[in-house]
Each structure stands twice: as C-alpha cells, then as structure tokens.
Amino acid sequence: MKLEEIFQIYKENIMPTYNKVPLVFVKGKGSRLWDITGKVYLDFFPGWGVGSLGHCHPKVMQGIRDQVGKLIFIPNNYYHPFQARLAKELIYWSFPGKVFFANSGAEANEGAIKLARKFGAPVGKYEIITFENAFHGRTLATLAATGQKKYQDGFCPMPEGFKQVKFNDINAFKQALTDKTAAVLLELVQGEGGINIADKDFVLELRKICDEKKILLIIDEMQTGIGRTGKMFGYQNYGITPDVVTLAKALGGGLPIGVMVARKEFSDLITPGMHASTFGGGPVICKAALGVFRAIQKEKLLKNCLIMGEYLAQKLKLLKTTYPIIKDVRGIGLMFGIELNIDAKLIPQKCADKGLLINCTHDRVLRLMPAINISKNEIDKAVKILGEVLKECA
Ligand SMILES: Cc1ncc(COP(=O)(O)O)c(C=O)c1O
C-alpha cells in the first residue's frame, strides 16, 4: 500500500479522534521503529507509556507466541493458570489485596470509582476528589474525574460526584472534604498535565487524612506504574500504601490491559455479578504481562531506569543551560517534562524529521518517556537530535 492510499483510507473510514502524525510504522524492536519507507526512528515516547520495555520485547513476544498456540480466550466464569499467576505477581509487588482485570486505563479507573461508591454507599458517601490538570480517561465517569473542560466539552452533563482541587495544595483538599467524600483519585506524576510531580509532604498528608476520615486513597499509576519511576510502582517513592492502585499501559508489554488492585478490606466489597469485563485478564495478555515482570527482574530494569534516568536528567539540564528557551526540566525515573517558554507543539515533528519520536503536552511541555531498558548510547543520540532542534527554534 502506498502512503497516500493509507492516509485516504483513514480519512474516509476511521473516526478522526487523534491529530495524526503522517508516519506509518510497520516494525519495532527495542527503542527503534521502522516506518513504511524503511526509515528508522529512535522512540523516546513508545506507545504513550505502553512501551516501557520498548517494542516487541523477546520475553513478551515469546509468551504471546506460546499462548496463542494453546488458548486465546476463556471467559471469566472459568479459571486460568496465567490469570492466577499474574494476580499473584501483582499482589507480590504491591500490597495484600485482590486484583480486578480489565482492558484499559479508563476501565481500571471506572472499576476503582465503582469500588469507592460501593465503599461509601452504606454511609451516604459518594464524592471523589481529583486534581486540576489530571487525566484519568475518556469514559464518562473518568472524564468527570479528569475534570478538564477541553475534554468534557460537548459531552455534558457529566456524572455527578466529582470535585477538582489544586494539585499539591493540601489546604484546597481539606476545604473540599465533606461528609460525602468517599475517595481521592491521584496521579503521582501528572503525565498529560505536563509532568507535574506530587510533593512528598502533600502525599503523606493525604494518606493521613484519608486514614483519619475513612476515605479511599486511589492512585492512578497508568503512567508511573511498572518500573517507570525506578520502583515497580510510583507510590513506593513516597513511603505510603494506597487503598487502591490502577494500572494499564506498560503492564501489557504492548497488549491491552487494565488492572485495579485493592486492599483486602475493600476488595471484598465486590461480589459476583457486581462488576465484570468480558475480555479482562485473558490468557494471552496475562502471559505477556508475566513476561514484562520477568524482563524487569532478569534484566534489572528498575536499576537501569534509575541509572539512565539520572544520566538523561544531567544531559537535559545541560541543554537547559545552553538553550534559554528551556524554562524547566523535571522528572522522576525515566519520565521527563521539558517545559519551554515558547510554543512547543511543532517540535515533535521537527524531531521526527531527524529520526527522534517525542511528545508535546500542555502546548509547552516536551514529554520524554523512553523505554526503561534504554542505553546511554541511545540517550546520547536522542539528546543530540533534541539539541539540534532546540538550536533551530532558539
Ligand atoms: C494517568 C492516566 N490515567 C488513565 C488513562 C486512560 O487510559 P486508557 O487510554 O488506557 O483508557 C491515561 C491515558 O493516557 C493516563 O495517562
């Protein structure tokens, strides 16, 4: 198929939900992607957070191949050994509790919202507090939780019971509390929101208040989970244990998954028939996710994430001293935002022209989330291209 033909088919047959980049990718390996013309790209934003192990990691691919030959689907009224093993793995890395399997981040958050409602129902609590600039998904309830007008426009009325307060502002949170507050839903690093990192004191205080007032602390780890911050889960950097954690993206190694993990005292609120998802936790995806955990352990990727994160941070700070258009560099592990004091929307395309894929969020923030198995050599190449583009824009 020719490029123009593909673009035309999309135009005529696929709903335009994305602003498309005119690139057609056909192959991926590690941090490299090949487009249809054979050009190779270094991917520093693999799959919007999905590609924590890069593209087509051998341990994930092997798991998928093995399982596809045996059984690809079994409904959730039966048992499967790999769903059992994945649940055990998730609990091993997180906290004593139970797991619910779904297919996407929004669906995992929907499950958490329903759990919070079920938890609060006997005492009339149903409100969920979220934070300005949050992103929790595109279903109606998660859109209400996201609270950003630009995503909600045209889809109102939103479901009731969601309140947004200023991020990292404990007083604003305290003021929003009522006797109807059932839960708080928080990203520890706001990804779509421009890589805004939650302060440790703020998170510790939230945990304390949630304990005192019997409010569920739900952490959305779609972007920060599965090694991205140098720990298996982002909350482990804060010395707290949440009541509920939601996961997706990197956990599936490239296949769709969504997961809610809830502490035991809350997980048992869910009883048969109350909540479900037909495809959630199928054998192929569970085998792929087990491959992700194996790769992280065998290849010591949490350590690599920290070392390479530090290396990239230094390189980016150097860029900041060279190019005054950089206002701020912030990040944790291998999740970085480079805030410019100019409009940054065209910069990803300029980088792509030179063979580097990155993202721009909130108009002025360049977002880099390379695979956690990235090498120094790949970081050097990416920073060189980024430097060239920034020089052109300066
Ligand atoms: C923090 C966060 N939560 C939830 C979601 C929604 O995930 P999904 O697109 O898989 O529904 C995203 C997606 O980008 C996200 O970044």
Poorly predicted residue ranges: none
Separation of termini?
A: 39 Å
Strand content: 15-25%
Rg from alpha-carbon coordinates: 21 Å
Short description:
This protein has 13 helices and 17 strands. The chain is α/β, with parallel strands linked by helices and 394 residues long. The radius of gyration is 21 Å and the shape is globular.
Keywords for this structure?
394 residues, alpha/beta, Aspartate Aminotransferase, domain 1, Aspartate Aminotransferase, domain 2, 2 domains, 7-stranded mixed beta sheet, 4-stranded mixed beta sheet, 17 strands, 38% helix, 19% strand, binds pyridoxal-5'-phosphate
Notes on the structure:
There is one protein chain. The chain is an alpha/beta fold and 394 residues long. It has two domains: 14-43 and 301-393, Aspartate Aminotransferase, domain 1 (Alpha-Beta Complex); 59-298, 3-Layer(aba) Sandwich (Aspartate Aminotransferase, domain 2). It is 38% helix and 19% strand. It has 13 helices and 17 strands. It has helices at residues 3-13, 58-68, 81-93, 105-120, 140-146, 149-152, 170-176, 200-213, 264-267, 283-298, 301-322, 347-353, 376-393, and strands at 25-29, 32-35, 40-43, 97-102, 127-131, 162-165, 181-186, 189-190, 196-197, 216-220, 244-247, 258-263, 326-332, 335-340, 356-357, 359-361, 365-368. A seven-stranded mixed beta sheet has the order 4-12-11-10-7-5-6, sandwiched between helices. A four-stranded mixed beta sheet has the order 1-2-3-15. The protein has a four-stranded antiparallel beta sheet with strand order 13-14-17-16, covered by helices on one side. A hairpin with a 2-residue loop joins strand 13 (326-332) and strand 14. Helix 2 (58-68) runs antiparallel to helix 10 (283-298). The radius of gyration is 21 Å and the shape is globular. The model has no long low-confidence stretch (mean pLDDT 97). Pyridoxal-5'-phosphate (PLP) binds next to helix 4.
